[in-house]
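Example record used in the benchmark description.
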Amino acid sequence: METKGLNEFQKSLEDIVKEIEELENKLEVSFDELFNEDFMRQYTSYNTWDELLNKSGFGVKNNEDFEKIPNKKLNRYIRKVTSFKNWENMINKATEIYIYKQIGI
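Model output (structure tokens):
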């Protein structure tokens, strides 16, 4: 009886590892996917990623513009309009949630 439960648990772990490996092979996840409306409503003052960017005053029109924002300014803004201390914490949390959803946890 215990062996059956252990085998099922091992199969479950193997399935999770396989799904994680598939995610790693996915080259890119958009900010809209990471920062979906549920995430934005829960952790920020805005409903969408675009709204957060538009209200920032940084003039972001594309990924290149976003990458040019000085870290100090971005972190200050993130601290002001989200529940995160800085940009790194925000993107790490969004990534964690995204991965958990993808593997069904």
